[in-house]
Design brief:
Length: 738
């Protein structure tokens, strides 16, 4: 047992408790004992204290009792000539440090200005600083489940700073590639923090890249422990105050370790002693005596003198993490941490598809002898053939074969392009089907990334994730404009056939709907509820697709939802759906209405094909799709609407939809259905002509198609109302929208 480590930890614990007690007394004197205090947007009070003791700290007046408990836990600082093993007193003192840190961090939220960016997932360039502070419950429910289901094998709490910026980037990237979250707090004796080093290097930090900057002070490290405790209470069903149950759950399910970089001071020793209680070992790069005997942690407690180049692998070994990685032969890093990466114009080498060009992705199956596994081709210009900031059309053509492959699986694997390609560092992918929009960063291009690497990624990941049904994968990337245009029409014909498979199914005769949370890497609170008569807003997933997806991957983004008892038939509300939506959205939303645009509409993310918006003066609605860039009657173009409606928001009066949904009998049926539709972009109206004419016949208005205005008739609400009056639009006689 290390006398030096435990002795320094106990000494540091005394210093921390003394300091925090002074801050608590000062806060009570300034604000009064009744002043409410807590971490933002959480039901778990101060989580480490609440989880271990069951005590709810709600006001400043509750804090002195916690300080008293800390004093009871503190051991006497051992004498210099004491050589006895005293891990127990060291752990108790470490727990006192954790409690004191919980109090100290809560006090920061009383400061003006607050040093943190409360309830934010990522710092932005316009923010004064980079520190996010505690994870709120929305983030917890979005991210915490990843530790429980294994998609995130664990987290590394990085304290201090690397020896230089380059090493910091290398450590972070190695952890990202292994899908490990990086929780950053504290600083080195010279005032440098690991998070600041990454920020200086231009690395995107935040929850979406799994590089989470909690805070600059040593006390901010408690947010890593607090996250683990909240996960135990939320996902593990542990009872607050059952410290044995909480600690065992974290040991067995939330695999974490500390990487202590640079010189370790007494306060950090104290925090390390506290972390051992939670089975979180410390791996340090400096040379001091180790705490090797096992007992509380899975293996060693404190391991030291590990070079920074080897410290990640040592941390994984000591904590006992099981990492599964399929190495993909591309010149950039790859992993889920890069799925939330954004690439701005000034960092972009080339743009592919999007609103200024054509972009699509298409997957289909062929006989085994007609697919050459691992064959990748580029037809047309590659990335090196365009100037920086240039634009290319793109068609991603994927040929699949497998003995167990079914035609119903085609759209599921096609839709996987979104997250599979996003996993590459320096690649941004948005959209699906014929609205694909991609960007490749300058850094990725400079590293040697080419379009052929799209094939490398898709081949490796489809074999890895869908090996049970996929035997062969062949990928061709088209950037030749004429060829992209030709093949796009072939793909559209197949998409139309896929969409028509659902024509005879209705919601009333179906007991099971499906969720789709594929887009939560970009919109964490977004959930699609897919029914036979309401496809996913991206247009790529209908009910049959989701059912097939669930058969392929029962733990994937498409989960069955037993709709249960009907709450409101007109609105499209069911008990089972609401019970699913609440936790799936991180409790951001309590209820969804499948058929309403006004009352609890479904959330929208940036992958929608189109947006429906109310025109209240006209008593009607309009729909605008991504391809239309002009003005609209609601006063906002598509791009502005997308920024207002997207991001996982529930916005009454607006809802993201698929184009195919317009032809459904359930299309905003709570407000009267398609009879409300008064304006469409001309190109979209022509594209949906057959569908709209069919619905017109069904509602008894054979000429309804001609009653829908386009930009040629007007782009203001007044102009649309004039057109509606001229043609006798049925919405003028319907009940008011509000």
């Amino acid at each position: 047992m290390s006398r030096i480590v435990i002795g320094a930890g106990i000494r540091g614990s005394h210093a921390v408790v003394d300091r925090v007690e002074g801050k608590v007394n000062a806060a009570i004197e300034k604000y009064g004992a009744d002043k409410a205090v807590g971490l933002p947007n959480t039901a778990y009070y101060l989580p480490t204290i609440y989880g271990i003791t069951g005590i709810k700290v709600e006001t400043l007046g509750d804090m002195p009792a916690i300080i008293k408990k800390c004093r009871e836990l503190l051991a006497e600082v051992p004498a210099e000539d004491c050589w006895l093993p005293y891990l127990g007193p060291g752990l108790d003192s470490g727990m006192a440090t954790c409690f004191a840190f919980d109090l100290e961090e809560a006090l920061k939220y009383l400061e003006d200005p607050c040093p943190y960016l409360p309830s934010k997932e990522d710092p932005e360039e316009t923010d004064a600083d980079i520190w996010l502070g505690a994870a709120d419950d929305i983030i917890l429910r979005k991210r915490g489940v990843e530790f429980v289901d294994g998609s995130a094998p664990g987290f590394a709490a990085v304290v201090g700073a690397a020896k230089d910026v380059e090493t910091a980037v290398a450590i972070a990237k190695e952890l990202q590639e292994k899908s490990i979250y990086v929780f950053m707090a504290s600083h080195s004796p010279n005032g440098v923090s690991f998070a600041q080093q990454l920020h200086e290097a231009g690395v995107q930090i935040g929850w979406n890249t799994r590089l989470v900057p909690f805070g600059y002070d040593h006390s901010a490290a408690i947010h890593a422990i607090g996250f683990a405790v909240k996960a135990a209470l939320t996902f593990g069903g542990q009872t607050p105050g059952d410290h044995v149950g909480v600690l065992k759950y974290i040991k067995n399910r939330i695999f974490a370790f500390i990487l202590a970089l640079d010189e370790v001071v007494d306060e950090q020793y104290a925090a390390a002693c506290g972390a051992i209680n939670f089975a979180v070992p410390t791996i340090a790069d400096t040379d001091f005596p180790e705490v090797l005997p096992t007992g509380v942690c899975t293996y060693e407690h404190v391991v030291t003198n590990i070079p920074q180049e080897e410290i990640v692998s040592k941390g994984i070994e000591v904590r006992g993490l099981k990492i599964t990685i399929t190495k993909i032969d591309i010149p950039v890093a790859y992993g889920p941490a890069f799925e939330g990466e954004r690439i701005k114009k000034d960092a972009m080498h080339v743009e592919l598809g999007g609103p200024k060009s054509m972009g699509f992705e298409f997957a289909y199956s062929k006989p085994l002898d007609e697919v050459e596994d691992g064959k990748f081709e580029v037809v047309g210009p590659d990335l090196g053939d365009v100037e920086v900031g240039g634009l290319l059309p793109i068609g991603i053509w994927i040929e699949l074969a497998g003995r167990k492959f079914q035609e119903d699986f085609e759209p599921i694997l096609e839709r996987q392009c979104h997250h599979l390609l996003n996993g590459a560092e320096g690649v941004l992918h948005i959209g699906q089907r014929d609205i694909v929009w991609m960007r490749i960063s300058k850094k990725a291009f400079d590293a040697g990334f080419t379009l052929k690497h799209f094939g490398t990624i898709l081949h490796a990941k489809m074999h890895n994730e869908f090996g049970a049904i996929v035997d062969k994968v062949q990928v061709t990337i088209y950037t030749d404009e004429a060829k992209v245009k030709e093949l796009l029409e072939v793909a559209r014909k197949t998409w139309h056939e896929r969409d028509n498979r659902l024509a005879d199914m209705i919601d009333e005769t179906t007991d099971t709907f499906y969720s789709c949370t594929l887009c939560q890497s970009f919109a964490p609170t977004h959930v699609c509820v897919v029914t036979p008569e309401r496809p996913g807003l991206c247009g790529a997933y209908n009910w049959l697709d989701c059912r097939a997806s669930y058969e392929i991957n029962p733990h994937g983004p498409n989960q069955p939802i037993e709709k249960g008892d009907t709450i409101d038939e007109r609105l499209g509300k069911w008990k089972g759906v609401d019970e699913f939506v609440a936790p799936a959205s991180g409790n951001a939303f309590e209820s969804f209405a499948a058929y309403s645009i006004m009352e609890d509409p479904m959330t929208s993310c940036g992958c929608f094909e189109a947006i429906a918006a109310c025109l209240f003066a006209a008593n009607a609605i309009m729909v605008v799709d991504r391809d239309y860039t002009g003005d609209t009657p609601c006063g906002m173009p598509f791009s502005t609407l997308a920024g207002t409606v997207g991001g996982g928001l529930q916005t009454p009066g607006f809802v993201g939809i698929s184009k195919f949904y317009i032809g459904s009998k359930k299309f905003i049926s709570a407000e009267g259905g398609i009879k409300r539709l008064a304006w469409l972009p001309k190109a979209l109206k022509e594209q949906l002509k057959e569908m709209i004419e069919k619905r017109g016949e069904e509602i008894g208005i054979p000429n309804f198609y001609d009653m829908i205005a386009t930009e040629e008739n007007g782009t203001t609400e007044e102009e649309v109302m004039a057109f509606m009056t001229e043609v006798g639009h049925p919405a003028l006689e319907m009940d008011p929208l509000m």
